[in-house]
Amino acid sequence: MKILFVCTGNTCRSPMAQALLKERHPEADVQSAGIFAASNQRPNDHAAAALKQDGITLETKSQPVSDGLLKWADLVLTMTTQHKQSLIIEHPDFQDKYYTLIEYVSNSDKQIWEELKQLYADYVEKRSQFIYKNRLKMDVNQLERKLNDHLQDDWEKIQKLKSSLVNYDISDPFGGDLSIYQKTKNELKNHIEALAKKIDST
Predict the structure, then answer these.
(1) What would the pLDDT profile of 78-99 be if each residue is shown by its tens digit?
(2) Residue 24 annotated to the active site
(3) Percent helix, strand, coil in the chain (nearest 5)?
């Protein structure tokens, strides 16, 4: 199974998850990427130091999420619900592969996510249709205002459904000291262990 971990900048959480899984499962085919990542940046020093305490060397280089990577992956595990939602909106063709890490190993709220996927798909379709129909009739600012009004009910439905979800986010250590990164590492270790067991059982 080819696994892609996704976070924001691909310098903290997702490379830590990648390294932890590789340590636990050396034969794993695993990469990481970031929704807003630049290319070829070194991992955060605190992230590397936190893993070094466990004897793990963090040597990844950052890369942005791309259709090529999403096509390569059999499973895409995000660090937060927001990351997952961004992927659903920006890369809808691969959404059957998307889970938060915690969601995937706990397998809760499956029905809610199925409903959310459908709501997002409808939202994207309505958005595209409205823009196509009105793009020549309004200027950019007017189009944006009317678009927000047109989609407000749909967006409120999405937000209401989202609020019923369990918190599936791995805490973001960015900007914190080494102890914060150690806390995130320990959080990740628990879920990576559960992921490794799930892989072993398939």
Answers:
(1) 999 999 999 999 999 999 999 9
(2) no
(3) 60, 10, 30
